[in-house]
Amino acid sequence: MASTLHARISSTPTPPKLLNSHLHASASLSYRRALAPNLDAFAPTPTPSAFISRGRAITCRAQASPAAVNLGPGTPVRPTSILVAGATGTLGRQIVRRALDEGYDVRCLVRPRPAPADFLRDWGATVVNADLSKPETIPAILVGVHTVIDCATGRPEEPIKTVDWEGKVALIQCAKAMGIQKYVFFSIHNCDKHPEVPLMEIKHCTEKFLRDSGLNHLTIRLCGFMQGLIGQYAVPILEEKSVWGTDAPTRIAYMDTQDIARLTFIALRNENINGKLLTFAGPRAWTTQEVITLCERLAGQDANVTTVPVSILRVTRQLTRLFEWTNDVADRLAFSEVLTSDTVFSVPMGETYELLGVDAKDITTLEKYLQDYFTNILKKLKDIKAQSKQTDIIL
Fold first, then answer.
1. Could you say which of 46, 88, 128, 219 has the lowest number of CB atoms within 10 Å?
2. pTM, two decimal places
């Protein structure tokens, strides 16, 4: 599955089938994908450098036209006008909520879907339909936007590169051509240290592509979301279902997405952080077993833990590599393998807190987050049980 994805901004005419007339007349953009084995993986312009990954290659070139950011006369774009990509996701919806609370005019990029994202409209955001895998749908939604906040990621059933690489390249190119003033990109901590993992490789390459695009930008690497632990551990324990874990000592500093959203907007308003790479991590790094033990204590019941040895993940990944139609499964297993290795996904946050003017005491701990969840859910279950008994008496 060796492939090369080649994307560039140049002065050549824009293919009509990719971008429409919403692009500024003085800017030009082209997007090209080619398949070729054994090429250097990352070669930015003007100085090439390699970014290689076990026979898989990603090549991206960013070369901005000087006219791409020359908007000329027209209606000024308000700094409070933002577009959130991936607005229905775990992080995206918190970004939207925080932005609305702080008085931003929020536009949410949502793929056309049978079930509309009505909750975003109910909050006060504007929902616009577009698809990152279809570049021709992007330019129109960027008209009048000052800042793009990119929380988007592909769906589990999609090839990783469709949204997380090809879609991001198209969005960054369009943002450049449309004169977007700032671009915020969420990446993964340690993505530069694991080129063997397709998702992390793509995140690192996208960081470089964004940097070389010439856009004012902010890249934020994340370690893990506390919200993800609810479905993975808390709910199965309460429902007395199996909880899946591994025998690896990986430690992850989970962070509440509400805190991530708050810190993001503090950083966004700080002009001294333009072009910087920040990493957000929670107050403490936890192993899987420590998280399960905490959930057991707060739930007041034991978990039915099924342990999957890391060696099984490795063998499964190698087997799925034998068939082209299971390549994407293998890619995701590669990410799981990293998350179950002897790795610590955390960074000291002292300097970041100082830079942002944030007190560490205001950051939610995992103990507090899970305690609040179990307190609320157990109270609801108790109330439901009481109502059920009352109904039985009446009947």
1. 46
2. 0.77
